[in-house]
Amino acid sequence: MASISLDPRSNLQVGRNHDQQHGVIEEIEGLIKVFKDGHVERPPIVPIVLCTMGLERGVTANDVVVDKCTSLWARIYVPSCPGKLPLLVYFHGGGFCIGSAAWSCYNEFLSNLASKANCVIISVNYRLAPENRLPAAYEDGFNTLMWVKQQALLNGSSEDKWWLKHCNLSNMYLAGDSSGANIAYNVATRLGSRGPSESTIIRPLSLKGIILIQPFFGGEALTWSERYTNQPPNSALTPSVSHAYWRLSLPFGAKRDHLWCNPLANGTAKLRDLRLPTIMVCISEMDILKDRNLEFCSALISAGKRVETVMYKGVGHSFQILHNSQLSQTRIHDMMSHLKAFINE
């Protein structure tokens, strides 16, 4: 796959007429503009593709409606493997503000993962900020799980249930990259904070593990890697971009020490009370989030949680999606092997 450029110069002409008529109140150059009148522009930096395009050999995909009222939908990938397969519910990245389950890079990455790891994947197209600030994305994640539960319990056949016969619902994983990893974690903690009743809430689903790829967290106090890590021009995440995403996605008036941004803001004591399965955290060495991700892992371990940490040398944030490094293909191969082992252990 060709690399995806986040160079803002490639999209400077988009929305110029609207710029002249309405003031821009927030902008991540080349990615998103928010205007005083509420209008939001997102330049088409990544191609939107049909579910049938660019799939790995032997993988079937289809789009399903989860909730018509909120326009929530998902893309489901099913590999041609015998027997019941693990179910992976996946959330894409994009700072809660951009991205789509139909982006070509996610279509390629997830069909590859479905094929390599032998799992069914539900890629959730959740609502984006700032039109729908948090917790909208978390609600969409939780509602997707409840939709899967409903599909499993409904009698009769349905065109939307073609994938269900391939799933082992007692072997489910929540996963995501960047902001999608944040969503996966917060959906899992919502389940884990309910105590023993969790099994009743999502039964017949059973959460066996959580996969967090370069999880997008933040805080008012910057870490060393957020302050000093040198980023190339095509980096997916810089401190200024990170701060802008949080301004656009957190509830109005919230700061970066809000628990949705900084899960360690109130210390680690409450982490002990969460009932969480084993968590795999994938960290990139050149990512500004490296130190924050490592601190997060240490806090989880101190709270008695089972954590598997994997460091990917020489690559930055979202390398597995952007293919923006000479090492990307090698590290993607490594990541696929690690994810397969975790899902099938």
Largest sheet: 8 strands, mixed
Number of E strands: 11
Mean pLDDT: 91
Low-confidence stretches at least 5 residues in length (pLDDT < 50)? Answer: 7-16
Q: What is the ordering of alpha helices and beta strands?
A: HEEEEEEHEHEHHEHHEHEHH
The level 1 CATH classification of the largest domain is Alpha Beta
CATH superfamily of the largest domain: Alpha/Beta hydrolase fold, catalytic domain
**Overall CATH architecture of the largest domain:** 3-Layer(aba) Sandwich
In whole angstroms, the N-to-C terminal distance is 29 Å
Cα Rg: 19 Å
> Count of helical segments?
10
> How much helix, percentage-wise, in residues?
25-40%
Number of domains: 2
Structural class: alpha/beta
As for the CATH topology of the largest domain, it is Rossmann fold
The general outline is globular
In what order do the strands lie side by side in the largest sheet? Answer: 4-5-7-6-8-9-10-11
Question: What percent of residues are in strands?
Answer: 15-25%
What does this structure look like?
The chain has 345 residues and is α/β, with parallel strands linked by helices. 31% of the residues lie in helices and 21% in strands. It has ten helices and eleven strands. The chain has an eight-stranded mixed β-sheet with strand order 4-5-7-6-8-9-10-11, with helices on both faces. A hairpin with a 3-residue loop joins β1 and β2. α2 crosses α10 and α3 packs across α4. The longest helix is centred in the middle third of the chain and has 18 residues. The radius of gyration is 19 Å and the shape is globular. Pfam families: Abhydrolase_3. InterPro entries: AB_hydrolase_3, Carboxylest/Gibb_receptor, Lipase_GDXG_put_SER_AS. This is Alpha/beta hydrolase fold-3 domain-containing protein. GO terms for molecular function: hydrolase activity.
